[in-house]
Amino acid sequence: MFQNDLLQGKRILVTGGGTGLAKTISRRLLELGAVVTLVGREKSELDDAVRELSSVGGGRIASHELDVSVGAAVDNVIGKIWADGPLDGLVSYADDMFVSRTEDINPDEFDTIADTVMHGAFYVTSAVGKRWIASGRQGSIVSVVATYVWTGSAFVTPTSMSKAGIAAMTQGLAVEWGPKGIRVNAMALGTGGGSIDTDAIPMRRNSEPGELANLAVFLLSDRCAYLTGEIIAIDGGQWLNGAGTFTRHANMPDEDWKALRKR
């Protein structure tokens, strides 16, 4: 689908730790020649990911331990990364969520999610963007959100609010930073991936991680240089079918909610 040297020499930061989609995207970037820096809170997961991915493709990978919810730490780590060479791209995928009735969520639980998802996305985006602006460099940012940024979603209120904030940031910064040569886009995932009945998805299957990674690659690449401010759904048509949320939990009895919170 892509030429093997599509991202040759491009320096790209991926937030979100050393597992799941962040690792899958990192693998695809490496296959296409990128120099990848992976950041997350769990050093052991990062170390495992670097060992696994170090021989992939034509790129190089490194990692830094980082809690993106701490603004000063973000700026410090981005400064260290920049000292090795300026970045060309950012994939922002620090994520946190749990399914709960909103009346059961306490302020500390809300802050934990908002700090990681929304505040963390802003801190990293700002730290990278201001360095591009100061040096007159172009760059591309891809944030990972969810399709319920357009609809909201019951039972994941803190995450839904936070991701909607990232969507608003994406569109606002596209206008602010477009004249400076910085593109800002987002990819909106569904609630598939094995967690739901595929009858809710018009394509009748869950996503493959590689499909999501390919969209991130396209949005980062110079082949997509005229696209900015877009939030692109990649969910098999799920949200158009009215099922891209967690409303399926609406009829759960109290005892099931208590058990879910314990988990």
UniProtKB/TrEMBL annotation:
Keywords: NADP, Oxidoreductase. One of its GO terms (molecular function) is 2,4-dienoyl-CoA reductase (NADPH) activity. The keyword Oxidoreductase applies. GO terms for biological process: fatty acid catabolic process. InterPro entries: DECR2-like (IPR045017), NAD(P)-bd_dom_sf (IPR036291), SDR_fam (IPR002347). PANTHER family: PEROXISOMAL 2,4-DIENOYL-COA REDUCTASE, PEROXISOMAL 2,4-DIENOYL-COA REDUCTASE [(3E)-ENOYL-COA-PRODUCING]. This is NAD(P)-dependent dehydrogenase, short-chain alcohol dehydrogenase family. It comes from Bradyrhizobium lablabi.
